[in-house]
Amino acid sequence: MRIQIGVPGDALASSQLHAHLRRHPDTRRLPLEHQLPAGGTSEMGALDTITAVLDSGVGVGGLAVALAAWRTQRRGTRAERTLRLERDGQVVTLTGYTPEEAERVLRTLAADPAPAPAPEPDGDGPRP
């Protein structure tokens, strides 16, 4: 599962978050990719993102702890305390979160979507 993480409106903070995740003991072994918007710079609300590839609940919990630790270390602007998380088009913005809140949101994003219900028989098929 791939989760995109970004710091809205702050490319420097996003780069610093990426560095933090690379060093944090709970996430340093996670495959992480840091992508800049097209053109290589963040402009006009474009968001550079960090993609974390998670394959277990342990990875989700570790990422939540690392995100909360990064937030706790930041003592600046509101943007530095706000994270945008996305998976398969589902977007969540976290502001002022605890490790438990971050983990709850990550687990919700990580959950497989409910399977589509089976189609109702239309009456045109063979009957038993």
UniProtKB/TrEMBL annotation:
Chain segments carrying region Disordered: 109-128
Organism: Streptomyces gossypii
InterPro entries, per database record: EACC1 (IPR045428)
Any Pfam family matching the protein: EACC1
Protein name, as recorded: Uncharacterized protein
